[in-house]
Phosphoribosylformylglycinamidine synthase subunit PurS
Amino acid sequence: MKYHARIYVTLRPSVLDPAGVAVQSGLKHMGYENVEQVRIGKYIELTITAESEEAAKQQLDVICDRLLANVVIENYCFELTEISTPAEAKV
Amino acid sequence: MKYHARIYVTLRPSVLDPAGVAVQSGLKHMGYENVEQVRIGKYIELTITAESEEAAKQQLDVICDRLLANVVIENYCFELTEISTPAEAKV
C-alpha cells in the first residue's frame, strides 16, 4: 500500500529559536505587535510504500529519528493517509 | 481573542526541491527504496491576537504574503485554533 506522510519537525519548547525571534521582530517592525511566540519548524511530505499502516509508521519513526529530526533538540510527529489510486502520473 | 496559528509553507509542485532530492537520496543509501516524492517545506507556529477569527485570517494572509512565504515559488495554508484560556505562563 502507498501512504502519503505529512511530517512536522519542531524545536523542543525549551530550545531557543533565533529564526522565530527574527520573524517576530520583523513582524513588529511591520506593525504586527499582536503576534507572539513565533516558532519555526520543518514540514516534510513524502510517499512511502509499505505492507500496512503499522509498518509505514514504524519505518517513518526510524526515518525521523535517524535523518529528519535531531531528537536532542527537536520533536516530530506525522500523519499518514492511504493513497487509494496509483499516482504515477502526477503533474 | 487569542488564536494559535499553524502555518504550512510548501514549494509549488512545479518548483524543483533540491533539499527534498537530497533527503530522498540519503534515504535510498540507508536502504529505504520505498520512499518517494520527498518535499521539504516550513512549518510555523505563532499566537495572534485579533478581534475575530476573520480578522486574524486577514492579517495572517498579509503576513504570509509579505514575510513568511515567497508566493512566486511557494504556496501556504494555515489553521487557526482559538486559545480559550490566557496562556501567559507557558513552560
